[in-house]
Design goal:
Strand order of the largest sheet: 1-2
Largest sheet: 2 strands, antiparallel
Shape: flat
Strand content: under 5%
Number of helices: 4
Length: 138
Amino acid sequence: MSERISKTDVNFWLDTFLLCVFLLLCWISVVLRYVFPPIYKSSQWTLWGLDYARWSDVHFVTLCVMVAGILLHVMLHWPWVCGVVTTWRRKRHPKSAIPKQDSGSRTLWGVGLLIVILNVLGLGIAAASLTIQSPPVP
């Protein structure tokens, strides 16, 4: 007999996973900032066979895993988020007729919000790429 996994179980394990990834990200950040010497002095230093650059790569991959988990978390809670926003709108505008949203319109709002967030992030990265300055040539 196969037991069906409940939504509560999925949320619990996803939240537990996100907590573990967050703690790992915090640990790696502290190691990079306080355990390793400053990057200009850390060329020969290693921790468990990885140098500063490799730990920096692990840090970035861990961040990407956390972002993917957070995105999944928000997707699983999206109907709740939309319900809260609709309740707020109804409280602010009690006389207006705010229609109940179906899952299709909620999905469109979510995809639209994701597109806006990714564009803002992309603009920030583009601004940094376009304005970075190299050191002067001696």
